[in-house]
Amino acid sequence: MKQAIHSFSFQRLCSCLFLSSSHAFPMPPRTLSLDLGRTSNYVCKSCLAHLRPVTNQPPQWLARQASTARSLRSRTRKPATELKDKDPDPAEIQRMLAEDLFNGSAAQSNLDIKYFSENIKTSERKSLQTNEEFSEDSTGLDHEVLTSIEDLERRMLDTLKLINTMEKEGKKEKAAQLRKQFKTTIRAQYKGKVGPEGEAYGVLRIKGFSGPRYRVVEDLNIFLAREKVLEKGVPSHKDLAECWKFYSSARKTLALDWAKVPREVWDFLFMVLSFDSRDNPNRMQHTYVLAKDMQAAKVPLSDSQQLLAIEAMFIEGWEIEAIDAWKKAVITIGSNKETFTPYYELGVRMCALHGDVERAQQAADTLLRSSHPPSPRIIIPIVRALAAKKSMLDEAWERYQDMRTLLGGSMTIEDYDEIIGSFLTVGAVEQGLQAFVDMMFSEAIDIRGRDRLPMVVGNHFFTGKWLKRLIGAGDLDGAYKVVTYLQKKGIITAPVQLNGLIAAWMRSGAAENLEKADKVAWQMIQARLDFVELRKRESIANGNLTLYNPKPNAINEKQELKNEVEPKCLTRATAETFSLLAENYCSRRLHERLEELFRVLDQAEIMPTTFLMNQLIRSYSQANETKKALNLYSRLADEIGVQPDGHTFLTMFNSLSVNRLIKRIPTFTEHDIASARKFFKDMVETRWEFDTPELFGQLPRTILFSMFKAKDWVGAIVACRAMRRIFGFHPTDALLVELMSGIGSLQVKTKRNTLRLTEGARIIENFKHGYRKDLIKQGHPGEEMTPEELVEENHAVFEQIVYRKAKVRQVVPEDLNKWVGEVSKEMGVYDIVVKADQEAISECMKFDKQAIMG
After folding, report:
1. What is the DSSP letter of 546?
2. CB burial class (10 A; 0-12, 13-18, 19+) of residue 730?
3. Is CB count within 10 Å lower at the N or C end of the chain?
């Protein structure tokens, strides 16, 4: 006897619900034998849902003979004509399935039915005694799993019936919304993470690995099943990093059996790991590893994947192997219309970088002569490769001209930058300058081979634009080559341009660039010293000497070009040059070099600037030479007339011993009190304004902390009152807590500092509470305070902190006013603090409200 058993297919069930799936539950082939000479009428539920009558006779399972009259009465059938071209009612299907072979008529009949399972390979038969054994054998699923599936099927059919009913009643929009939500729920629950287009990948899950040893595979599965690995087709930085993290951890385990990794998973991983984005800096490395793994798993790569894998192989250092792979793919990928252009573009880039210029040109010519829309910009790698060989420099120029002709008006500034960079990298400055001239002028101006450049080109205004562009693009080596070339042509680079190059070198922080900056800056200083010496000789010789020859001697020029000797720098240093070196030496703590620089400054007959003075004072302070710093400040400010600014006084207050030394020395502290009051007086009398918000926040804070550390309590009160009027300064709550707790910086997070901050905040709250109680006693309504009242409160709390620090419980107002009057005279703010003279306050005002708030 033969019996056909249809395996349960979850995929077919999803098809009923307008869902597509590329996987179903695995069903091992089995045969079922009966003692009776008839065929079993067991049919899977999914097939029943799709069953349609094709003849005028009712289906076999609708026309079974019942064993009793009772069952005949309970199984009244509809005529076949009523069932034609109609779907079976789901409720009717469920009712009839409930009365199927094991639960209905066969069980009530007099027939004795036995079921067996036969293994086709071994021909062994196994008797099936219970419904659970039959279900498990026929479906390949455990009874509990099958029960859950049947429950899911019932609910899905009920939902589908509800949606169809809503559509028939005219609620199409609501039905469409429910159907969409239904699809999303099923896909998210049973299909796993499916990528940007759900049906393109199917189930993204790796099966066949279980147990604690294979936890890494499960972690990868959890990542694949995320709801939003991709959003709008673009993976996030976190997704890119975690995708490689989980896959690289699972590679060794997956290598035990690559066949268990579905193709959909490979494609998804390739799409994510090879995504071109700034957030994916290791894109090529990851692509190369993944492509090797796919090759080991014998998974064929698509044409686009092969191209990217070849490029990754080349970038990872396997240049010869990558080029060989590219050659072999000419018949397959190279002949495909979709990959023709990227295939030959990749070949041009790889061969040009590898030095095989001939093959690169052949690939470029094939691409440009084809019917496919080529991009003439593919010539740029060829120009770069040809320019690297001095013997092919003319050919590189010809190829550039070809590209320029093909592009015409569509050639962009970026294209010119690529060409210019290609020539400057190999030292072909003349060709680079010619390309820049082509970019700047519409008419043809040929400068190649000329001893003297045309006036429209050979001036520091035109060349300054080029240098500015090169420096801005970060091509510092190219900019210096241009400077050297221009000097050979007799064009002196403007100091502002060369200072810009020096500053860019210093900002880079590289040791080689710092050395170049130092070398060029001192060459400029030497040029300035030579100029001063010639000027002195000219004055002695009554004008019979010339200061310098703007055009180098022709013989010397030829000798320099022949021996490639760097010409002498003719650009003279300015105050900005000295400032750049001073800041660099000070930040690197090269105090001796800074002193040498300052001595040369006098020889160069350049007046010291405020910036130079600030850097030298700071350097003396760092070297613990405070006396020299004070003497320098006095000499420059009082004798030479250098105007100090806010940064000068910030530097001077920081130079006090209480801000430099860990251990306080009484004699130094007493000296600091006098110095701080003098600095404050000079600061008030000097005309300057805050230029940055950072200085506005740092200077008042540094002054108050300096006086607190020196225990100049009256000076702190005077300084705060004065700064309120001339700085517009008001102590903040955070500053009050810091002053109370005695912590100069909140950056050091220790347990002791945390306790001190907590205690300081508690004391500040007590001060504010007492201040507000006094206000209520004086008639304040006790409601919310205005901003002006809050400012007054903070100033009152500040003075309470001073009294507490000075260990004074109560201060007599008359005594306080006397002390304030005496100290304010010493600090030069008597008219501001005591008299409150508005004219004096206006003259000493140091801030512009709009500038500081902006």
Report:
1. -
2. middle
3. C
| Structural domain includes residue 498 | no
Distance CA 809, CA 817 (A): 17
What's at 414, amino acid-wise? E
Residue 784 structure tokens: 């919310």
Note the pTM of the prediction, 2 decimals: 0.64
Distance between CA atoms of 399 and 376, rounded to whole angstroms? 10
**94 bridge partner residues:** none
- List phi, psi (to 5°) of 209: -120, 125
Taking the C-alpha atoms of residue 703 and residue 722, their distance in angstroms, rounded to an integer, is 12
- Please tell me the predicted confidence (pLDDT) of residue 151: 66
Domain boundary among 257, 276, 295: 276
Residue 151: count other Cβ atoms within 10 Å of its Cβ.
10
CA-derived radius of gyration, the chain = 44
Residue 121 neighbours by CB distance under 10 Å: 6
Q: Is the pLDDT of residue 312 over 50?
A: yes
User: Considering the domain boundaries, does residue 261 fall inside one?
Assistant: yes
Q: Would you state the structure tokens that stand for residue 42, as one six-digit string?
A: 């067991």
| 217 and 247 housed in the same domain | yes
- 223 domain-assigned: yes
* 467 CB neighbour count, 10 Å cutoff: 23
Phi, psi torsion values for 542, nearest 5 degrees: 60, 40
Specify the number of domains making up the chain.
Answer: 4
Q: What is the pLDDT of residues 53-82, one digit of tens each?
A: 444 443 333 333 333 333 333 333 444 444
Residue 720: both structure tokens together: 């705060």
- Given a cut of 60, whether residue 399 has pLDDT beyond it is yes
Host domain of residue 24: 10-190
CA atoms within 13 A of residue 220's CA, in its CB half-sphere: 27
What is the percent of the chain where pLDDT is above 90? 36
217, 245, 276 - which closes a domain:
276
Q: Round to whole Å and give the CA distance between 819 and 716.
A: 12
H helix count then E strand count, the chain: 42, 5
Report the distance separating Cα 601 and Cα 598, nearest Å. 5
Nearest Cα residue to 134 out of 260, 38, 5, 303: 5
Q: What single string gives the DSSP state of each residue in 703-719?
A: HHHHHHHTT-HHHHHHH
Distance, in Å, from the CA atom of 520 to the CA atom of 166, rounded to the nearest integer, reads 83
b (16+ CB within 10 A) / e for 37-49: eeebebbbbbebb
H-assigned helices in 333-378 = 340-354, 357-369
Same domain, 78 and 211: no
Range list of H helices, 624-692: 626-634, 646-654, 657-660, 666-685
| 752: phi then psi, degrees, rounded to nearest 5 | -65, -45
Paired residues of 127 in beta bridges: 116
When mean pLDDT is compared across 19-23, 103-107, 671-675, the lowest value belongs to 19-23
Rounded distance, CA 14 to CA 156, Å?
Answer: 9
Query: What is the reported pLDDT for 157?
Result: 67
Give the HSE-up count for residue 251: Cα atoms under 13 Å, Cβ half-sphere.
15
Both tokens assigned to 271: 């799409």
Say yes or no: 427 and 383 in one domain: yes
